[in-house]
Prior knowledge:
The chain is an alpha+beta fold and 105 residues long. It contains three helices and two strands.
Amino acid sequence: MDLPPLETAYWLTKPGRLVRGTWGEPEEAARWLGKQLTAHAPRFASEPDRGTTRPAILVRSAAERLGWGGDVSHGFYLERPSFLSLTLVCCSPNRTRPELVCPER
């Protein structure tokens, strides 16, 4: 299933077809997150999430967290009954679950 797992590291056990990208540097992954936030911002149910301040903070925080090997997971309710899950997972190895390997694409 493509539902988010209860523990972020378990994204590494999901099928590779669910991988939207891989990046060698934290800043590259954070830029992808920023693009996703920008693309979906008009549909965010929460008014503050639609602005530019909160997404910019999330992108900076993601780059910092990924830089020390932490995972990033965000969820947003969208207009109409929809939910957007955006997750960035380190897998070389993962900090909380080092036994999990990077998924095959």
